[in-house]
Design a protein that fits this description.
The chain has 75 residues and is mainly alpha-helical. The chain has four helices and no strands.
Length: 75
């Protein structure tokens, strides 16, 4: 996910946001289009970073990581 988003130039990112926003905004949200898609992309990128960083923390135990992933999955 992160490598895909990192490889996008500004125009490609806007195009992806427009497609996602159009798909999500079909009579579901008050807003739509590129703005909604941009919010979704930003959230997806942040989530991917959180998961990646959580799996690399060496000072935590396996039980700490499991609790984090369980909580994240149930959010």
């Amino acid at each position: 996910m992160l490598s895909f988003l990192g490889d996008l130039d500004d125009k490609q990112r806007d195009d992806v946001a427009e497609v996602i926003g159009a798909a999500l905004g079909q009579d579901t949200f008050a807003t739509g289009g590129r703005y909604l898609g941009t919010l979704w992309l930003r959230d997806a990128e942040t989530t991917a970073w959180h998961v990646l960083l959580a799996s690399r923390r060496t000072g935590e135990t396996a039980a700490d990581r499991k609790r984090f992933f369980d909580a994240w999955g149930n959010a």
